[in-house]
Amino acid sequence: RVLAGVKDTLQGLTLAGAAQLTEEDLLHLGQLHGLHRLSLAGNKAATDAVVSAVVSSCGASLEELDLSHGQASGFTAEPELCRLTDQALVAIGGSCKNLRRLLLKNVDTITD
User: CA 43 to CA 15: how far, in whole Å?
Assistant: First the structure.
């Protein structure tokens, strides 16, 4: 309901480190069809399923996406805590044709 009033006009959203959000909460981001910038950095609920669902709905407008894991401390992500894999990148590549910037700092669960 909260997103209903801004779903077509909101251009940028930062939910970095919002630990209280669940996967179910993040799935609602797919309603934001005009979103240009999205940060889910440090959000443990940012899974492959969430990223796939969000970019399939609003990926066409996304220009910047930050899925970095944890703080920018120089330490790598713990695989059991970081829930992003190559599947998320496949979804991003297939849906985000206007993406200019993708941040994946400390995400070591993605392969070459």
Answer: 8
Instruction: Using DSSP, state whether 76 is helix, strand or coil.
Output: coil
Contact status, residue 19 vs residue 44, Cβ threshold 8 Å: yes
Is residue 86 a contact partner of residue 50, using CB atoms and an 8 Å limit? no
Give 11-31 pLDDT, tens digit per residue.
999 998 888 999 999 999 988
Global pTM value: 0.84
Q: Which element (helix H / strand E) includes 13?
A: strand 12-14
Residue 10: partners with Cβ closer than 8 Å, 6 or more residues away: 3, 32, 34, 35
What pairing do the DSSP bridges indicate for beta strands 101-103 and 12-14?
unpaired
